[in-house]
Design a protein that fits this description.
Number of helices: 9
CATH superfamily of the largest domain: Tetratricopeptide repeat domain
Structural class: alpha+beta
CATH architecture of the largest domain: Alpha Horseshoe
Helix content: 55-70%
C-alpha cells in the first residue's frame, strides 16, 4: 500500500517538476550579458577594423545601458566623424571636453573638424580663456574656499594686535580669488545653455513658423545658445555672431544632456 502511495505521489508532482525545469533551464543556460568594458573593447576593435557604423552601434548601446564617460563620448565622436555626421561629432567632442576639459585628443580632433567645415573660431579674449580653465563646479569650489579663508583671516585680524600686515595681504589674495571665481561661475553658467546644430542647412527664422523669413542659414556643427524660450517645435537661440532667431528644436542638441 505504501509503495502504491509513493508511486501516486511521484506521478502527481512529476509534471510540476518538469514544468519548473523547463522554465528555469533557459535562464540558467543563458549567457551573462557582456559588461560595459567588454562592449567598449568590442567597439574599439570594430573601429580599428574600419567598421565605423558597427562600432557606433556598439558605443550607442553602452550609452543606453551604462551611461556616458569621457572616453566613450570621444569614441562616439570619432565614429560620427568617420560616418560624415559632423554635427553629432562636434556635439560629442564638446560633451567629452565637458567631462575631461584637458583632453588633448578631443580638443585636437574638434579643432581639425571645425577647420575642415569652415567653422573658424575667433581668438577668445584672455579673460574668457582664463575663465575656461575650469568648469562650473571647480569655480564654485574655488569661490567657496576663498570665502571661508577670507572670513577666517578677518576674524584672526580682529583678535591679533600684531602681524596684521601679512593677514591683510592674505585677505586681499582671497578677495581676488573670490572675484575671479565669480567671473568664472558667471561665464560657465552662461555656457550651460550651449547647443550644437546637428542638422544640415538649418535656418534661423524671424518667427517660430515654417513660412517665416530666414535670418541666415546656420551651418552644421555651429554652436548656438538657448534663450530659454520655446514655441511649438521651435526654440529661440542666439548664434555666435549675436543674431537671435528661431530654429527647429530637432535641429539642435544641448551639449549638457538634459539642458534646454
Amino acid at each position: 500500500m505504501k509503495l502504491i502511495r509513493s508511486v501516486l505521489f511521484l506521478s502527481a508532482i512529476c509534471p510540476f517538476v518538469l514544468l519548473f525545469g523547463a522554465l528555469a533551464t533557459p535562464a540558467a543556460l543563458a549567457a551573462p550579458a557582456p559588461s560595459a568594458e567588454a562592449l567598449f573593447q568590442q567597439g574599439n576593435d570594430l573601429y580599428g577594423q574600419g567598421k565605423y557604423q558597427e562600432a557606433l552601434q556598439m558605443y550607442t548601446r553602452i550609452v543606453a545601458e551604462a551611461g556616458f564617460s569621457g572616453p566613450l563620448l570621444y569614441n562616439l565622436a570619432n565614429c560620427y566623424a568617420q560616418t560624415n555626421q559632423a554635427g553629432l561629432a562636434i556635439l560629442n567632442y564638446q560633451r567629452a571636453l565637458r567631462l575631461v576639459p584637458g583632453d588633448p585628443d578631443a580638443r585636437g580632433n574638434l579643432d581639425l573638424l571645425r577647420k575642415h567645415l569652415g567653422l573658424f573660431q575667433e581668438e577668445l579674449p584672455w579673460a574668457q580663456r582664463l575663465t575656461a580653465l575650469f568648469d562650473l563646479d571647480q569655480w564654485t569650489l574655488m569661490g567657496g574656499v576663498c570665502l571661508v579663508l577670507f572670513t577666517l583671516v578677518n576674524l584672526a585680524g580682529l583678535r591679533l594686535a600684531t602681524g596684521t600686515r601679512w593677514l591683510r595681504g592674505l585677505g586681499g589674495f582671497c578677495l581676488l580669488g573670490m572675484i575671479l571665481a565669480a567671473a568664472g561661475i558667471f561665464t560657465q553658467y552662461r555656457q550651460q545653455a550651449a547647443a550644437v546644430v546637428t542638422s544640415r542647412d538649418a535656418r534661423l527664422l524671424l518667427s517660430p513658423f515654417p513660412s517665416a523669413a530666414a535670418i541666415e542659414t546656420v551651418k552644421e556643427g555651429q554652436v548656438v545658445v538657448y534663450q530659454r524660450t520655446q514655441h511649438g517645435s521651435y526654440s529661440l537661440v542666439a548664434d555666435q555672431s549675436g543674431h537671435t532667431g528661431w530654429i527647429e528644436t530637432k535641429a539642435i542638441a544641448a551639449i549638457i544632456i538634459g539642458m534646454k
